[in-house]
Amino acid sequence: MRRTRREFLTSSLALTSAPSILKGQTRSDELRVAFIGVGNRGSFLLRQMLKVPGVRVVAVCDLDEERARKAAQLVADSGGSARVWTDYRRMLDEQKEIDAVVQAVYDWAHKDVNLTVLEMGKHLYAEKPLALTIEDCRMTVRAARQAKGIMQVGFQLRYDPNRNASMKFIHSGGIGRVLLCHGMRHGGDLPRDIPWYFDREKSGDILIDQGIHILDLFTWAIGKHPVRAMGSGGTNLFVNEPPGRTVMDNYSLILEYPDGQRVNFSHHYFDPPRFTGIKERVFGSEGAIDLAEAVWQPRTERQAQKLDVPNAGQDATYMALAAFVDCVRNQAKPLTDVEAAFIATAQAIMGTRAIYERRIVSWDEVVKEA
Ligand SMILES: NC(=O)c1ccc[n+]([C@@H]2O[C@H](COP(=O)([O-])OP(=O)(O)OC[C@H]3O[C@@H](n4cnc5c(N)ncnc54)[C@H](O)[C@@H]3O)[C@@H](O)[C@H]2O)c1
After folding, report:
1. Ligand 1 pocket check for 87: Cβ under 6 Å
2. Which CATH superfamily is domain 5-157+316-339 in?
3. pTM higher than the cut 0.85
4. N or C: which end of the chain has fewer CB within 10 A?
């Protein structure tokens, strides 16, 4: 059934919470999972997935055979056994007993891998961003809507216990009317051992690749996608460092929302110790909340309050993977489904364009183009 644009946007911002952790699966109903891309992120996802009850990792694939072998060793160390592949298409064709795939390949390769996995009828946990262009995002949305399997995208911060509890508080009206979100992500530079991070053609640049996580949280808090973006950014310290660098090392971004709310976000890669940190603050008519800390400060009181946090201390990625497995079993819609990922990625594309082109860029302009 074809859905209207309004239904599409409303459903993708639905106020769902993270499912509970799975317990007591038997071997016969284990979910058989394959990994594609087991570098920095993929190997972390694998370590977390090996802790999720009811899952058997049966295959690992990486273009780099050495990495795939290391990943298979992680599976063996946990008592399992995974076949090693370097060609994901062959893996999906030849190893039939795969129910679900976790994808953590380069950003520019997301679309091709995602479309293949979805067309093969597998459930898919795919790393962010959805893709690097609106056209590729749209193709992925279409493929996911038609697919037999479910698709969840790697915005794991939504499953982080503190942020999830904060968001429930906001959505239940706890902070009153949402007025404004203020965020910062200030730290040192990107890891130099992952060269593609520094190439904007391959990563989409640091807003689409990294800032996207915090912007996704703010749009989730506000409950509507932004309507325009303005910003400024560039490379002020790490000029041509590492050689050939085309990504920024800082930017500031403002997003405006239909009911007058705004997001004010800054992202730096050259902050010295004691100036670094992440802040994700949502201001409402009754006070403000720090999402990452789950601390609520009413406007008229001096004392801040720590919220009750279910699953406190659990890792966000573990929670996201456990939720994915839960959704597969219950045929439920993931909290970070393809529609939510479309909005998160489109707003990051809009923001990046506003910075590059030094002008106000509207949502309609960006989203209509494909
Ligand atoms: N959600 C998060 O917090 C988070 C954090 C870091 C990275 N990521 C995302 O994870 C993805 C991977 O990033 P990374 O840091 O692990 O990079 P990486 O370069 O360390 O790893 C990517 C791996 O994918 C493999 N690969 C690429 N194309 C492949 C293909 N066609 N078939 C098989 N293997 C292939 C590469 O050989 C490499 O080992 C990116 O999309 C990135 O944006 C997400």
Report:
1. no
2. NAD(P)-binding Rossmann-like Domain (3.40.50.720)
3. yes
4. N
